[in-house]
Predict the 3D structure of the following.
Amino acid sequence: MTTHAPRATQSVTLPATLDAAVAALTAMPAAVPVAGGTDLMAAVNRGQLRPAGLVGLGRVNEIRGWQYQDGHALLGAGLTHARMGRPDFAALIPALAAAARAAGPPQIRNAGTLGGNIVTGAPTGDALPVLAALEADLVVAGPGGTRELPVSHLLTGRELLGPAELVGFVRVPLLHAPQVFLKATGRTGPGRATASVAVVLDPARRGVRCAVGAIAPMPLRPLDAEHWIASLIDWDGDRGLAPEALTAFGEYVAAACVPDPPGDEQLPPAVLHLRRTVAALARRALGRALS
Ligand SMILES: Cc1cc2nc3c(=O)[nH]c(=O)nc-3n(C[C@H](O)[C@H](O)[C@H](O)COP(=O)(O)OP(=O)(O)OC[C@H]3O[C@@H](n4cnc5c(N)ncnc54)[C@H](O)[C@@H]3O)c2cc1C
């Protein structure tokens, strides 16, 4: 039997602009982009990935901050979780800041980025349900220029990014209204989500948007529950809801996202627990958003 030694990474390029990063990936099709490296290097260390080259994004300053644009925030893909967790960012997009503060231990939050979270697309990616509820768009840079796509398109897998394409920015509507992200973990302290819920109020459209993360390959939107609860809110008044309505919303969301098994089978205990967790997260998240 012939064994092959794993191929070592051949080259590391550190471009200073997004265009130069795209050019480096175009010139070296076998290379992969790396931002904070928290997901990518873990895959390398597990022996799952042996990239022939790396294009580091850490020096691309244009994607490390954000700017305002037509009622939206244009967030650089290189924003770290630590940066998004700070108060000035939290005042802008509170749910994304809450998700960033919950994304792993401090050393991970210092290095891990928004773009890496999106492109990895792990079910437990904390930014993902928030971006789904916000109906964010991605600005993708590639050899043919830039294109935009809804974030929900990318959450199904990396292959939607073409060769040498990079996520440059995330365009998020600024709603100027309460929004909440809550996450349940299997243990105390930082940990991956067993379930998470983002709730966003959109008073201009008299809408409530909700996304449930970590329980399916991509975030789930319980659209019927969103429409039903939005119709009960007095948008011109105090926006309060009776506790029974909050409880019913939680159960509606949970039933939509954690469906019954086929036939008359009883819910297995693990499914019942997950449904209760999702119901509690959704009820609390909406209650906090409306309080
Ligand atoms: C111990 C530990 C705990 C963690 N806990 C959490 C947690 O609680 N919640 C959570 O959400 N995540 C968690 N993570 C996962 C990880 O930290 C995040 O997903 C992080 O946001 C990834 O960002 P990164 O910059 O490190 O990505 P990288 O590892 O650099 O890249 C990840 C993938 O994205 C690609 N990529 C990166 N940037 C771009 C770009 N701009 N355009 C195109 N492709 C790009 C890379 O090629 C690679 O495929 C944890 C990780 C570890 C190791």
